[in-house]
Design goal:
By secondary structure, the chain is mainly α. The protein is built from 10 helices and no strands.
Amino acid sequence: SAYDSSSPFPTAMASSSAPAASHSAQPPASRVRAALGCLRPSSVLPMLSELSLLSKVLLAHGALDVLLPNPTTASPLLRVLDRQFISKKKRGWAWLFLMCGLMKAYGALSDAKSAAGVAGWAYFAQAVAMTTEGFYHGSIPRATKVMGSNICFCVAMLVWLQVNAVRSGRAPAASTSSSSPRSPSSGAPLSPSGAQALAAGPSAPPKDVS
């Protein structure tokens, strides 16, 4: 799973584990070419295929937040770059969805704990903002079903992220406890000294010197 404690890109991790001396010895032009080579479709597609389902959903939804219109604004990226809208009120929702989309993309490429924090806050901010402005202030001229479906999706993603973080946190603890030696009588994990004594077997009784 891409949400283990390791990176979702084992290939990238393997390349980054090279000695720091050899990496620093490369000229800047070689580093730039290597970075650009990682952006080729032939390199990106295998990396994306290794992501978990949750990571793929986060990455796709982050791209949608940045590029496509939503119930609150036109395309956030185009709205931010368009200089015809002088009023900052026209760009408020665009900036919110742009930043939230980037946070979701970051969470898609991070471990479970980081994704639950970064992408989770993005979904929380969107849910609270759309609920307050759409239903309390009534400032979003969209149908109730449209607003409600978007808010419910944000809440569902927030719950999914938190549950996945809890599960990934329990998995290493369970594997550690199952691999540690246990006492034959109580079943509790033994200390290192106790494990060595158990492996050595029963000691011989002391000899009577009298």
